[in-house]
Design a protein that fits this description.
single chain, about 150 residues, mainly alpha, Four Helix Bundle (Hemerythrin (Met), subunit A), 4 helices
Length: about 150
């Protein structure tokens, strides 16, 4: 297991927490496949990684879209900043997957999953998602004069 459910910060909107836990489950499954591939480099394990990565990517797109719809509907002032972080994250996910596809170097995936991803995910939840969830719940924004 890469990350434990208890390591993820909770926010004040339950739908966001649930999606984060779903993400975490897929990420942990992907990490296990990466470890398996390290020990058994074969086309079957490679295909399993590709399928799981795409499942994660597609889930992440829906995750971000769900948050963005809520932010737009509620008039969240720093929407564009939060959306930009989502776009940067998806771009990096695409870059990492493309590098993996081109090189079949499993270290590319492993380093992303063990290094940058956990730091980004926890930081994003602690900052962007925490502020967003509070606004969605209360209507108060740290960007306003309230």
């Amino acid at each position: 297991m890469l990350l434990d459910k208890n390591e993820l910060p909770l926010v004040s909107m339950e739908f966001m927490n649930e999606v984060h836990f779903e993400d975490l489950a897929i990420i942990n499954e992907l990490y296990e496949l990466v470890i398996k591939y390290e020990n058994e480099k074969n086309i079957d394990n490679e295909n399993k990684i590709n399928k799981k990565y795409m499942q994660w990517y597609n889930h992440t797109v829906k995750h971000f879209e769900g948050e963005e719809i809520e932010m737009l509907e509620k008039g969240f002032p720093p929407y564009h900043i939060h959306k930009a972080e989502h776009e940067n994250s998806l771009n990096l996910m695409n870059q990492v997957f493309k590098q993996w596809q081109e090189t079949k170097d499993i270290q590319i995936l492993k380093q992303y999953l063990t290094g940058e991803l956990p730091k980004w995910l926890i930081n994003h939840i602690q900052t962007m998602d925490t502020v967003t969830a509070m606004f969605l719940k209360t209507g108060l924004s740290p960007c306003s004069a309230h």
